[in-house]
Design goal:
Helices cover 42% and strands 23% of the residues. It has 10 helices and 14 strands. Helix 6 crosses helix 7 (229-235) and helix 6 (174-211) crosses helix 9 (270-292). The longest helix has 38 residues, at 174-211.
Length: 358
């Protein structure tokens, strides 16, 4: 997938901007708080219907305006050219594709595939297991057609069981929901195992290149998979009542970085965490390409932060090899140069204005 053109109005400090990016590497540079990240945020909004920086859309609408608008022309392998538009604001949430309204966020998300890396992406490594589950679920949503339905059925049953844990002392009402959880869990885990098999092979290869150490991830499925989930849930009910929630199941999955012997890896520096987050996202992009024939678009905010020049060069070289479209923000254009490769399309952002420079 490629973004052919992007326009936005009333988006943060950018009253109006228009950009026609390269299908390869695109650099957005300028001083801090100039609006570089806002352009990445506008692209993200097209695929996720939300901001990656704040939860309240009011903070994204430019002060004094009522709604923001983002439109884009996309070139895709599977659907050809698409015209996508988003209008957001307090009480306003409208998305259109080729002139037709999209009713569900999932419809929008399937049209725009993005890999986002920001200075906060270290949470994918040192943050809670929930961060890694969300990242994994998002990747699987794009490549496994039945995954979302299995996920919804499992979590609907999980919510019912958690409610019973807080309100019911008898055993009778639990069994039907625990059976539903087990049925959905079997499908979830089968899909996750196949996806992770493909994903983590790419992680080992990229970790050698980026970190000079082959890493793998130990998978904790969320319970002892040698036993049926319904059996574990029944046995653990009294402890779950005390905790007030269900402590076993695929909603507790985690990925634990390890060395090749299976021992947990030592603490990573912030720079290493960023490289590992890039490794995971590039491996995920490769799985997506293998499964769908479509290249996702990379959005990388402040690539050079916490990376030395050699590490930055390795990342840029690998990104160019993917032949995917990439948007990178930086404070100085000298921070992003591909040795022996094509010069990026370069855009200067300052005081809420955007212009392409040679």
């Amino acid at each position: 997938m490629y973004v052919l053109g992007l326009r936005a109005e009333e988006f943060r400090n950018l009253r109006r901007f228009e950009i026609f990016p390269s299908p390869g590497l695109n650099l957005l540079f300028g001083p801090n708080a100039s609006g570089k990240t806002s352009i990445l945020e506008a692209l993200f909004l097209l695929g996720h219907a939300r901001s990656f920086r704040v939860s309240n859309i009011r903070q994204v609408v430019r002060r004094g305006a009522r709604v923001l608008r983002v439109t884009a022309e996309l070139e895709t392998e599977r659907r050809g050219k698409l015209s996508l538009g988003v209008e957001r604001g307090p009480g306003v949430n409208r998305v259109r594709c080729n002139g037709a309204d999209l009713r569900r966020t999932t419809e929008q998300a399937r049209l725009v595939q993005l890999c986002l890396v920001t200075p906060d992406s270290h949470a994918l490594i040192e943050g809670s297991a929930q961060c890694r589950r969300r990242w994994l679920d998002w990747g699987m949503f794009h490549v496994e057609p039945g995954y979302l339905e299995s996920w919804r059925r499992y979590y609907a049953a999980l919510r019912q069981r958690n409610c019973l844990l807080r309100t019911t002392t008898t055993a009778g009402p639990f069994s039907p929901w625990e059976k539903k959880m087990q049925e959905a869990a079997v499908q979830l885990c089968a899909g996750r195992e196949e996806y992770l098999r493909q994903l983590l092979g790419g992680v080992q290869e990229l970790s050698r290149e980026f970190l000079f150490v082959p890493l793998r991830f130990r998978i904790f499925h969320g319970w002892d998979k040698q036993r049926p989930l319904a059996e574990v849930l029944e046995e653990e009910r009294h402890l779950d009542r005390e905790a007030g929630f269900t402590r076993n199941g695929p909603h507790r999955l985690d990925l634990i970085p390890c060395n090749l012997q299976g021992d947990p890896s030592p603490q990573f520096s912030r720079g290493q965490q960023k490289m590992l987050a890039l490794t995971l996202n590039m491996a995920q992009a490769q799985v997506f390409l293998n499964k769908t024939g479509e290249k996702p678009v990379f959005l990388i905010d402040d690539l050079a932060s916490e990376l030395d020049s050699q590490a930055t060069a390795r990342v840029l070289a690998r990104l160019e090899q993917t032949q995917a479209q990439v948007f990178i923000s930086a404070t100085h254009r000298e921070q992003v140069s591909v040795e022996g490769g094509r010069d990026p399309a370069t855009f200067h952002v300052e005081q809420g204005t955007l212009r392409q420079v040679q």
